[in-house]
Amino acid sequence: MPAKPANDFPVVALGGSAGALEGFESFFQHLPIGTGMAFVVVPHLDPSQKSMMTEIIQRYTPLPVVQITDGMQVEPEQVYLVPANKETSIERNTFRLHEPERPNGQRMPIDYFFQSLAVNRREQAIGIIFSGMGADGSLGVKMIMENFGMVMVQEPTTARFDSMPRNAIKTEFVDHVVPVEEMAEKLMAYTHLPSIKGKTAVDTHKSSQMLQKVFSLIRNKTGHDFSLYKRNTIYRRIERRMNTHHLHKFSEYINFLEKNPQEVELLFKELLIGVTKFFRDPEAFQVLKERYLPALLKEKKDGETVRVWVAGCSTGEEAYSIAILIQECLAQMENAPQVKVQVFASDIDQAAVDFARAACYQENITADVSPDRLSRYFTRVEGHYCVKKELREMIVFAVHNLNRDAPFTKLDLLTCRNLLIYLSSDLQKKLFPVFHYALNPNGLLFLGSSETLSGYPDLFTPIDTKWKISRRNETSYPLSRMVDFPFTFTSIETVKPFPEPNQLPDKKDMNLGPLIQRVLLQQFAPPSLIINAKGDIFYIQGRTGRYLEPAQGQATLNVFEMAREGLKFELNNLINKANTLKEPFSVEQVRVQTDSGEQYIKLSVTPLQEPAPLKGFLLVVFEDLPTPKFRHRKHKALDLASPPDSRVAELEKELLFTKQRLQSTIEEMNSSLEELKSTNEELQSANEELQSTNEESMTNKEEMQSLNEELMTINLQYQTKTEELTNSNNDMKNLLDSTEIATIFLDNNLNIKNFTPQATHIFNLIRADVGRSISDIASSLKYPSIVEDVKEVMEKLRPKEVHLQTKDEQQWYSMRILPYRTVDNFINGAVVTFTNITAFKNLEASVAATSLYAANIIDIIQQPLVVLDGQLRVECASNAFAQTFQLIPEQLKGQWLFHLGNGQWDIPALKERMNQVLLEGKEMKNEVLEHEFPVLGYRRMVLNTRRVEQTENKPFKILMALEVFER
């Protein structure tokens, strides 16, 4: 068998800060031997203090625990500790240590290592977030998820400090949120999945049709089509979802999707995973700022606009980064032009766009944004950094689909970074002409470092091959050859996150009696208790008065406070062991002082695992034992007369038991001492953070005062906008009334939103009908219902026009239905207009009657007569003409004069005369024309013509009458 690659094993990174030491200890206590994984602990440590973390963790795991050094190889079945004074990364199965670029308070060691781990180990990367303050690790879990790894987070309610776990959960890039005790089980289940073992859960050769089914389900649910995304990416995302639900066959997952609409939404979010950060690839942004942006800005004149499009902006960090660069370039330029900067940032994900619009980011951005930029462009508010108003107003965020929606145009810079790598080559070739069309001449295209120009190499000239910056070329290709027009405009229904599952009821509120009685009757008969790990009593079985008694003071049901003399120590010891190791423990010959004297008992404590409602509880059983024989002797003399060996053995047994209890107490005390030392270090660190927070609060107070003044100014602006809106509303009302067109506005549920006064002439409407369905309103139209027509227009997004007559047959209306589009191009109902076309219908009937009258006149004439249009095509002809020349009357209309009779009328002399009629306006009078017809033979014809001019710029007609003579 081929040997496994050296790096073919998972690497588990454990990140935490304040309060995480307890989590680390519990994690390694529950970790089985032989996992085949490497473990890297990434804590927040004070570089000025000596850390004892390595020795502390070593107590709870048989695996070797070492501190990382530069160049150290990563090996399975090892625990590595990240040093406090270095930035740690992993490169090709080797640890690398780097000098920190940020001061101690601004470092994000968890994010730094997680990102490195994600890039180098991909699906073999596993990240776990434990207790801690702040948001370190939130960006790292996104990177791990983007590279198909696995992420776990400690259940926040079990963490001493829940800020770090909750911030990680907010990213929505988390596979499991579990207590620390269950993490080892989840790890082992994940490493046994097919995709982790090197197998593929999805057979790409047999799943094409099933994949189309997945695309159809997503398209029907969200309106987005992923059929042009790269297949490998799609399969890996689907595998992740299959692994989450422990499904091994693609067909099983298809069935699961069809039965669970919420899973379709989760898969959609999985496919939209967008990992970004401020100034991603800092060197690329530095090159853009120093070399190319200044030249671009110098070409601008005062009053002009610099237009930028950030395509695939995700949560907006890149858009704000570009805006910051432009601001800095303008500030550094001499004689900088007075230009307006407009940045368009778009993404397919509505939730990501909403987050970007809010413009508030977690405090872990300090790892990517310099302190100078933070102070200049951000404001710190309640543990977040919010973008300042002047920078936020430069950017417009929009939901936009590159494959479907029209592009932003007249751009000076277009950035599309780390998006094309997920798209198929066909879709990439379609997008590059779109980018070329959107850019101004010499505009810049900025791609990700892993993306390349393909398909149209003559559209762009690479000017920086390393960081994929290109300049737009002029091309002679027709626009229609390059860009796939037209783009369609359809609204996308916002994907609503499905509700979280209901929380389980509190165990105290559950009816545990029947369940507990069943367990007790099946296993035990002696007096027993059901308690939790804190000793609180939930249920009592049998008579327990000999072992427990109420304590003085406020009434309580705690077993430690109610235990009789001689029982408390053993009870505390057994409960701690059973709760920690999840195993039953018992001890015999426990002497208890009862009301009737001493009693020896057997004490047992068993952790309960089933049924499910009792999981986590402990069963305490008291069993009476007979008193040892030497205790029944009535006289001390008899005791002294007992065999010496028996007495010595008893004393040695008691001494051994006492030593064991003393050793256990010493070990527990040492462990508590180490925990207290660690807690003291964490408290010192927390104290420094609180001092820093206090200084920031004082600064925030001044900023709040300034912000209050800004809000007052904004309030005045809103008042002005309100007045303008009122005036616009009045203008719109007068405009609608003046058109005299009946108009009804409907919402998506076909309820009436508004209508013009003219609509009351057709429908029985009053103002109280606003909000009612249009189907409930009676109309004067001879038409069953307009509801189906409105639904058709809203589904197909195409206007529809129908001519309708009133029931009294006195009026005609043209009903036109159009989708109601908002300013953001969202469909929000329909607009139904009714235009009175009675006069037009009357005129149409009159014209039809006149035409029929003229046709009858022509038919009754016994002389051959033809009516021609301006191109000498037959409008109509008399029956005498058809009979004379043996033509079929039904085939005459629309034929060219010279094609009649299969070309028999192709007479040169006739053509010459008719051209004079057309071009010179001459009329033929008694013109004699002789011609030998192939079928009819010789005919002598006398022709007379007349041009009939029509009104309203309509083309003229020609009347041609003939007299025909045979030889």
TrEMBL record:
InterPro entries, alphabetized: Bact_Chemotaxis_MeTrfase (IPR050903), CheB_C (IPR035909), CheR_C (IPR022642), CheR_MeTrfase (IPR000780), CheR_N (IPR022641), CheR_N_sf (IPR036804), PAS (IPR000014), PAS-like_dom_sf (IPR035965)
Transmembrane segments: none
Catalytic activity: L-glutamyl-[protein] + S-adenosyl-L-methionine = [protein]-L-glutamate 5-O-methyl ester + S-adenosyl-L-homocysteine
EC class of the enzyme, as a word: transferase
Entry keywords, A to Z: Chemotaxis, Hydrolase, Methyltransferase, S-adenosyl-L-methionine, Transferase
Family matches, as SMART domains: MeTrc, PAS
Any one GO CC term of the record: cytoplasm
GO molecular function: phosphorelay response regulator activity; protein-glutamate methylesterase activity; protein-glutamate O-methyltransferase activity
Domain CheR-type methyltransferase: residue ranges: 207-482
Record carries keyword Methyltransferase: yes
CDD domains registered for this protein in UniProt: CheB-CheR_fusion (cd16434)
UniProt-listed GO biological process terms: chemotaxis; methylation
EC number: 2.1.1.80
Protein name in UniProt: protein-glutamate O-methyltransferase
Organism: Rufibacter radiotolerans
